[in-house]
Amino acid sequence: IRCWSNIPFITMPLSRAHGKSFAHRSELKHAKRIVVKLGSAVVTRGDECGLALGRLASIVEQVSMLQNQGREMMIVTSGAVAFGKQRLRHEILLSQSVRQALHSGQSQLKDMAIPVLEARACAAAGQSGLMALYEAMFTQYSICAAQILVTNLDFHDEQKRRNLNGTLHELLRMNIVPIINTNDAVVPPPEPNSDLQGVNVISVKDNDSLAARLAVEMKTDLLIVLSDVEGLFDSPPGSDDAKLIDIFYPGDQQSVTFGTKSRVGMGGMEAKVKAALWALQGGTSVVIANGTHPKISGHVITDIVEGKKVGTFFSEVKPAGPTVEQQGEMARAGGRTLAALQPEQRAEIIYHLADLLTDQREEILLANKKDLEEAENKGRLALPLLKRLSLSTSKLNSLAIGLRQIAASSQDSVGRVIRRTRIAKDLDLEQVTVPIGVLLVIFESRPDCLPQVSALAIASGNGLLLKGGKEAAHSNQILHHLTQEALSTHGVKDAVQLVNTREEVEDLCRLDKLIDLIIPRGSSQLVRNIQKAAKGIPVMGHSEGICHVYVDTDASVEKVTRIIRDSKCEYPAACNALETLLIHRDLLRTPLFDQIIDMLRVEQVKIHAGPKFASYLTFSPSEVKSLRTEYGDLECCIEVVDSVQEAVEHIHKYGSSHTDVIITENEKTAEFFLQHVDSACVFWNASTRFSDGYRFGLGAEVGISTSRIHARGPVGIEGLLTTKWLLRGDNHVVSDFSEHGSMKYLHESLPLPQRNTN
User: Fold this and answer.
1) CA–CA separation, 55 vs 107, rounded Å?
2) Which transformation does this protein catalyse, written as a reaction (predicted)?
């Protein structure tokens, strides 16, 4: 804790040796000293006369938050000219109106022309008001601000430069936020010069160059340049095919075409890039981002410091492999080539991958052993997750069998005609299956997921981006290598990409122009986070697997314990494991009930009592905290219901629409349950664990969906396809079908072509 003016501030352990910029966005959270440069377009209103007060207040709030975390914040601001122009216009109008009223003797005023205002005069009139506004805003957060006006001479005169440096350091030491601006009231017009050639030479001719010079002079960790565009584009923003550059490296200038400068201010994007590269050369990291967009301006600064993918990040360290954006484009191009292959060729790739899983068994298990040893040494994974991480010979054999099932069932998945209609004579319409596009599959601690999902993507002709957990890095690497080896047999190696960069999952979920569907495979928390983070991209999956087994009064004694044991104990960490056991009230205190309890005790299952069940017992197990709980371990809840109708109501209220089971010999009761439970999978006298793509004969699954749109339940090849319409005509136009036209609609259903059942 440090104090200034009796106000405590919680400080963060932020320190790093200056001299080298951060290599990755994820490191920006360690930035201690930060300069925020506010461009004229950010600070001023759209009419260029006056300040954008709401935007400015939001920026001050973010800077204050970071300052109170123990960081040292500085602001380089524009806005004095715009603020002064507003004040001077008001004064001129007032003065003209008084003179005109006196001169004419009339109260009615004629139209008055406002003269062109000189920028230096506007700056002189606006500086005091701008600073007063900043002081008032920072006071709301118990932070003091101080104004510093500089010119080029303050950097090139050695004594003045030392004085400026000393003043800034003293202000930062006292937890004061310096507000720096060029002294536009006296600064000479910018002249062409040979600046930006090296770390020791730069002219302060706009606030971009001022911010860069200041950042290097003060050994700043991070310079944030806010403008009215999202960042740096490879061509002028708004032009066709303009793409935002996520990371910009020195030497990339040749690949960029600069447009015009912003509506206000001295510099354009070219000036910002030159200043940013100069600061980068001096050891300061730089991000150029949009400070005017209403959806992001309220958190743009804090998002950048947290390492989120916002704007353009300048880095001197170029990664060895492609960026995730490049991988997305490669996956899309590879997926289209994959979809154009013959079905036999796609099947051949999957068969080859299945063979590689068994042929390269030793190498795969060796890589998996490294992951297991690292996970155990770090002690960060719970036992259920360690089980998911582990591969074995039997698992690999099962994987290979599942892949061969996918290959066999994929022969007519893409391009299959599912509807044919004769619209009119010689005008036929077909609806055919096509790939969705590019899939992003995010999975935790399950390397066996990689070949499964890859095979399904190959069979359905989709491009694929895979993001696995770092705990399975070695296993994922070799499995992806084998997948690409199989894909290479038909020249489509790029269709499946493994994301190995430091991309945060939240950033991947924002790539709506590259990704068509996100499929999370992991904990309920992971799924919820992805559903929350996804911006404009549909997410297929389920956040929870709260599966129920209802034991009816007509249940078979032999079946009950077997099904319950398998549902709960066979693999308790699975999303299709039993979590709540519903028992008909009439079964309490019967031999069957005793057998169920004895079996759960033998299997060491911890029992939690639901409210109604607890009310029947004198000494009950711990009462459940919530009936909507997914335990993922050897634990379950037992609750009592009075009827099958009440069981259905309980499932609808507390379930997650995943998998629910009834155990009964009464067919009428079973059919009622099957028809009325609104879940993705509903079973009669069968374990919840059958809810699985492999067990359904789908070969494998990309996940289990509880969504009500598109795919539901275990999702195999069919769930990764959509459709398109093909219309074949012969000089047909809609006007021919008008009231007085020569043609009539037929809308006849045509037979479908025979499916390949081999």
Assistant:
1) 39
2) L-glutamate + ATP = L-glutamyl 5-phosphate + ADP; L-glutamate 5-semialdehyde + phosphate + NADP(+) = L-glutamyl 5-phosphate + NADPH + H(+)
What is the distance between the alpha carbons of residues 656 and 650, in angstroms, rounded to a whole number?
A: 11
Structure token digits, residue 272: 């910002």
Q: What is the pLDDT of residues 437-454, one digit of tens each?
A: 999 999 888 899 999 999
Contact 405, 699 (CB under 8 A): yes
Q: What are phi and psi of 583, to 5 degrees?
A: -120, 135
CA distance 348 to 112: 81
Residue among 203, 148, 150, 137 nearest 170 (CA): 148
Q: What are phi and psi of 224, to 5 degrees?
A: -105, 115
Joined together, the tokens standing for residue 639 give 């609750």
The structure tokens 């591969």 sit at: 391
Of 364, 370, 371, residue with least CA distance to 393: 364
Neighbours of 501 (CB within 10 A): 16
Residue appearing with tokens 């499964």: 452
CB atoms closer than 10 angstroms to residue 291: 28
Question: What are the residue ranges of helices labelled H in 342-442?
Answer: 343-359, 361-378, 383-389, 393-409
One-letter amino acid for residue 322 of the chain: P
Output the pLDDT for position 752: 92
Dihedral sign for Cα atoms in the order 694, 700, 705, 710: negative
Beginning with the edge strand found earlier in the chain, give each strand of the sheet holding 417-424 in spatial order: 721-728, 427-435, 417-424, 748-749
C-alpha 720/C-alpha 456 separation (Å) is 8
What is the phi/psi pair of residue 149, to 5°?
-105, 130
Q: What is the DSSP string of 219-266?
A: T-SEEEEEESSSS-BSS-TTSTT--B-SEE-TTGGGG----PPPSSSS
CA dist., res. 623 & res. 617, Å (int): 11
Tens-place pLDDT, residues 740-752: 889 999 999 999 9
**DSSP class per residue in 607-654:** EEE-HHHHHT-SS-SPBPS-SS----SSEEEEEEESSHHHHHHHHHHH
Q: For residues 510 and 489, what is the distance between their CA atoms, to the nearest angstrom?
A: 33
488: nearest Cα among 458, 446, 521: 458
CA distance 108 to 115: 21
Question: Predicted confidence band at 604 (pLDDT cuts at 50, 70, 90)?
Answer: very high
The size of the chain, in residues, is: 758
**d(Cα 272, Cα 539) in Å, to the nearest integer?**
38
CA distance 415 to 713: 23
Q: Read off φ and ψ for residue 113, nearest 5 degrees.
A: -90, 135
Task: Report if pTM > 0.85.
Answer: no
Q: Which of 387, 705, 704, 384 is nearest to 573 (CA)?
A: 384
pLDDT tens sequence across 401-418: 999 999 998 888 899 999
Under a CB-based contact definition with an 8 Å cutoff, are residues 67 and 175 in contact? yes
Q: Which of 7-21, 290-304, 624-638 has the lowest mean pLDDT?
A: 7-21
Amino acid at 123: A
37 in Cβ contact with 182 (< 8 Å): no
CB atoms within 10 A of CB 627: 17
Q: Phi, psi (5° rounding) for residue 563?
A: -70, -40
What does the pLDDT read at residue 123? 77
User: In sequence order, what are the beta bridge partners of 639?
Assistant: 582
Cβ-in-10-Å burial (0-12, 13-18, 19+) of 538 comes to middle
Q: Is 166 exposed, middle or buried (0-12, 13-18, 19+ CB in 10 A)?
A: exposed
Percentage of the chain surpassing pLDDT 90? 56
Report the distance separating Cα 175 and Cα 658, nearest Å: 54
Cβ atoms of residues 387 and 633 within 8 Å: no
Q: Are 18 and 215 in contact (CB under 8 A)?
A: no
- Alpha-carbon 68 to chain mean position: 28
Q: Is 549 exposed, middle or buried (0-12, 13-18, 19+ CB in 10 A)?
A: buried
Asked whether the predicted pLDDT for residue 22 surpasses 70, the reply is yes
Structure tokens at 4: 């200034």
